[in-house]
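pinging the channel bc i need a second pair of eyes. not urgent but kinda urgent?? the chain im working w is below, pasted from the shared doc
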Amino acid sequence: MKIGLFIPCYVDQFYPKVAIATYELLQKLGCEVHFPMGQTCCGQPMANSGYAHLTKGCDANFVSNFSGFDYIVCPSGSCVLHVKDHLHDEKQEDKATEIRNKVYELTEFITDILKVDHIDGNFPFRVGIHQSCHGQRGLKLSQMSELNAPFFSKPEQLLHNIKGLDLVSLSRKDECCGFGGTFCVTEEAVSVKMGKDRIKDHENHQVDYITGGDMSCLMHLEGILKRQNSRVKTIHIAEILNSAQN
């Protein structure tokens, strides 16, 4: 299974350990993983700001870098959803369509394509999981609490069998953290207040770590935690699952 590893630009620049953990984890799960060196931003920041018409260069570059793979896997639900919904290339629209149907968020790929329902390992900490909005409501990685329907969570499913990991049940498990891409720049006061509310829920449950599938949300929460001198840390789910495989 030939995998193209799609790493968001902010992960590449600020959290390379998440990219490395994703790469190593996929290899351990039996995938042939390739990292296209010419990849850049997928164009989501521009699209979120109302400038989707300026992303044509990003789109063409993405198609050029990720054509020919069996699947494209990314440790970020928001970037995956952007590609699924917005990737087009007027010169190679057939390839763009093929890529949109092959791109997966990491936990989605592990559970739905590799059919891995649990990962054995050890992570002896109390953990709260942040369900990012794009992953939950866009990619359907977990059930929304406002729906009268059976609960499921692909990220939680992968964490449940890890020894020592105490996964807490939050009071408001799928509330937005307030990051929202460019929203945190244009509406910083609202964004910070929402982030503080999410952190308070985790702190009330005495977690050691906040984990999730979107490092953008975790980056937002991490900034608030550091300013509050909190003992709580953030960690991407790929880092937990990869350490469990060591």
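so Strands lie at 2-5, 32-34, 71-74, 103-105, 121-122, 126-130, 162-163, 166-167, 209-212, 233-236. and Residues 2-113 form one domain. — does that match what u expected or am i reading it wrong
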